[in-house]
Amino acid sequence: MPDTITITDDRTGKTVTVPITDGVFSSAAIRELDPNLYFYDPAYLSTASCRSEITYLDGDNGVLRYRGYPIEQLAEKSTYLEVAYLLRHGDLPTPAQFETWRNEITHHTFIHENMRKRFVDGFHYDAHPMGMFVSSVAALGTFYDDAKNIKDPQSRHNSFIRLIAKTPTLAAMCYRFSVGLPFNYPDNDLSYPANFLNMMWKVGDYEVDPVLERAMDILFILHADHEQNCGTTAMRVVGSSEADPYSSAAAAASALYGPLHGGANEAVVRMLTDIGSIDNVAEFVESVKRGEGKLMGFGHRVYKNYDPRAAIIKKSAYDVFEVTGKNPLLDIALKLEETALKDPYFVDRRLYPNVDFYSGLIYQAMNFPVEMFTVLFAIPRISGWLAHWEELLLDKEQKISRPRQWYTGPGERDYVDLSAR
Ligand code: CMC
Question: Are residues 191 and 79 in the same domain?
């Protein structure tokens, strides 16, 4: 069977035949038939917007790999900082490369004092930490003259280091501000996840529990990238206008904020809290089937199977609960999963737990308020966004993003004076 597709424009009888590679064919074929012919593809359901070598996702089989490495192996054996290097450079670092990377990131964790004193202190006392985070990431770029030098490899490198190093600092600062606690400065003697936990929780004597440090690192690894999702697409679209990476990352973080994307973990905990008891699970599932709401943390645009990240998180949750005590919402979540996975509504639509179904339970057990959940997602995703941003900038096939539209508004009509309307 030939690996080609032949398209005929029945209006003109013109035909083009183009190769199909890895299940993809170029839309240039359509332009060959008629330069004014477009696909109508809301939400990009059938559109590959780029070539990418970063993350492989097979949604039918529940497979996720960063640069070829299965997520299960990375979660078990690697660290987030190593994964951030891998995402950017395409290969795991040698010990010397890793040491340089770790050292650079560790020594860029501090942020300018004015960020805290003048910028963050200006927020209303009950500002949502994710809203603060989004704007702080954009504001951070204004402190670096070279942020806009996106064509200079050294400036790009500086942006990688600064953003990966400083986002945990910004995140912890937003949290401490929101609860009125003094800010904890970074401790460069700690690991990346331990430093973050320390900045979050240190009041008096505080030592990071190694189990929670590792759980945090695993969560960071699992959230580091997920190919062309809504946030990453926002990063690429804004980055394609050659905006600086801080502004682009702020746009990506804004996309992540929504409850259908990174905001879902917050929505899951609120949903489980509302359900209140395993006795109410069956009725809740029925209400979802009647269209009265969604089962948050279920379903995915690409995964039509168990999200492999959800499986790893579910396992890691038990390690965390050994230290923190079991989250009382766990039983409701387990019952909900069991009920949904047996119900034809969910089975027929291939709706399975996604990454957000269990992550909120771990975050909550670790004492994070629900408002911080999406911030916790954004901290590691910064490395994925940046890897995609640089890939885009170095991709000769890319231009400024500019989709076409299908205009369905009125045809030409004459203006009528206000008094005559
Ligand atoms: N609960 C109940 N029904 C659902 C759900 C759900 N969570 N998700 C999808 N459906 C139904 C949907 O109503 C539709 O039914 P029908 O064919 O009868 O109209 C069918 O399943 C197909 O869904 P869809 O809306 O066409 O799927 P989508 O690819 O556009 O949406 C999604 C994907 C993730 C936005 C959606 O599944 C959803 O809203 N899930 C809940 C929110 C959530 O957990 N989001 C986190 C995603 S994972 C983290 C991330 O990467 O951001």
Answer: yes
Q: Is residue 413 part of a domain?
A: no
Q: Mean per-residue pLDDT for 104-119? A: 92
Sign (positive/negative) of CA torsion 132, 133, 134, 136? positive
Active site residue 146: no
With residue 19 as reference, give the H or E element that holds it. Answer: strand 14-19
Of these residues, 9, 187, 261, 331, which one is catalytic?
261
Shared domain for 137 and 261, answered yes or no, is yes
Sign of the Cα pseudo-torsion (404, 408, 414, 418, in order): negative
How many CB atoms neighbour CB 215 within 10 A? 24
CA–CA dist 396, 129 (Å, integer):
38
Q: Verify that 11 and 148 share a domain, yes or no.
A: no
Residue 414 lies in a domain: no
pLDDT confidence band for 20 (50 / 70 / 90): very high
Q: The domain spanning residue 208 has which CATH number?
A: 1.10.580.10
CA of 256 to the centre of ligand 1 (A): 16
CA atoms of 191 and 168, how far apart (whole Å): 12
Q: Could you tell me if 133 and 42 lie in one domain?
A: no
Query: Of the listed 128, 226, 300, 388, which one is catalytic?
Result: 300
What is the DSSP code string of 231-285?
HHHHHHHHHTTT--HHHHHHHHHHHHHSTTTTTHHHHHHHHHHHH-SGGGHHHHH
Round to whole Å and give the CA distance between 119 and 189.
27
Catalytic hit among 217, 244, 307, 356: 356
Distance 70 CA to ligand 1 centre (A): 25
State in Å: Cα 301 to ligand 1 middle: 7
Task: Provide mean pLDDT across the span 125-136.
Answer: 93
Count of structural domains within the chain: 2
Q: What is the mean pLDDT of residues 223-233?
A: 97
> Does residue 300 carry a catalytic annotation?
yes
Atom number of ligand 1 nearest to Cα 297:
44
User: Which one, of 251, 292, 254, 257, lies nearest residue 271 by Cα?
Assistant: 292
Is residue 3 annotated as part of the catalytic site, yes or no? no
Are both 53 and 78 inside the same structural domain? no
| Domain housing 23 | 4-58
Same domain for 332 and 388? yes
- What pLDDT, on the 0 to 100 scale, is given for residue 329? 92
In a domain, 263, yes or no: yes
Say yes or no: 16 and 96 in one domain.
Answer: no
Tokens at residue 321, please?
């609960």
pTM: 0.93
Residue 408 in domain: no
